[in-house]
Write a structure and sequence with these properties.
single chain, alpha/beta, four-stranded mixed beta sheet, 10 helices
Length: 257
């Protein structure tokens, strides 16, 4: 193949275009043509840029035919989108309110919602086009919700007002103390943050317990996890089984934030 020769003006034009290149692919196109003009063979250029030799030959033909503008022209228009513009807009809005930890989960959501099946790589490309990136959420200090707390107190007042003489009044909850909230990665809109309220414990332990609000008796049961089986185990504790009260009013006490 004939050596590609350049005038000084053409060489300077390539250098200016390389400095102005906005992505790696454009920069590689310019470097390929520049190296060919410096006497490098297509095989050597392909090896240096880690591209195949046919691609290098295509870059040369486009440059010889149309110059730098033709070399950098993007002739790829992509395939017909699988979702309509309205569906894309709706999908993007959904992702801003619902954070998914995996691409696979997003693929399943789209298939169920729109009856369209994306590949994993195809969905990643769509997410990037919609300016979503895979990153960690952030923690912020947790603050109590006064409105929800007041509503809870009114509900509690009504329950206690109607409590029978022999009813036991327990607060039941499971807790998992640890030093730091463990953040996970998820697909989040670029430039935005998803925040998680922080707590303060370093080592995790699972505690299932109940507090008798009248006697202040505490019943505690630790287990590997808090689930239906561990809750049944808590109810089987001796303090529950030997109580003289036959009726129970169990108030599930949740942290209100």
């Amino acid at each position: 193949m004939k050596t590609l020769t350049h005038t000084e003006a053409q060489t300077n034009e390539l250098r200016r275009a390389h400095r102005a290149a906005k992505n790696k692919k454009d920069a590689d196109k310019i470097k390929a043509v520049y190296l060919l003009s410096r006497g490098k063979t297509p095989q050597e250029v392909a090896e240096v840029l880690m591209l195949d030799i046919d691609t290098i030959g295509n870059y040369r033909k486009r440059y010889e035919a149309e110059g730098v503008s033709g070399l950098l022209k993007n002739n790829y228009f992509g395939s017909e989108p699988m979702l309509s513009c309205a569906e894309i807009s709706e999908f993007s809005a959904h992702l801003e309110t619902q954070t998914y930890l995996t691409v696979e989960a997003i693929v399943l959501y789209v298939e169920k919602k729109y009856n369209v099946r994306y590949s994993i790589s195809g969905m990643r490309q769509l997410l990037h086009r919609l300016h979503f990136v895979y990153k960690k959420a952030k923690t912020i200090p947790g603050k109590a919700n006064a409105e929800l707390q007041n509503a809870y107190l009114k509900q509690l007042e009504e329950i206690l007002k109607n409590k029978g003489e022999h009813d036991a009044h327990y607060y039941l909850d499971g807790v998992h103390p640890q030093h730091n909230t463990q953040l996970a990665y998820g697909w989040i809109k670029k430039g935005q943050d998803k925040v998680i309220k922080s707590n303060s414990g370093r080592q995790r332990i699972n505690i299932n317990g109940a507090l008798n609000a009248d006697t202040l008796e505490v019943i505690i049961c630790t287990d590997e996890t808090i689930n239906a089986q561990s809750t049944i185990k808590l109810f089987g504790c001796r303090s529950f089984r030997t109580t003289k009260n036959q009726n129970y009013s169990l108030i599930i006490n949740e942290l209100i934030f």
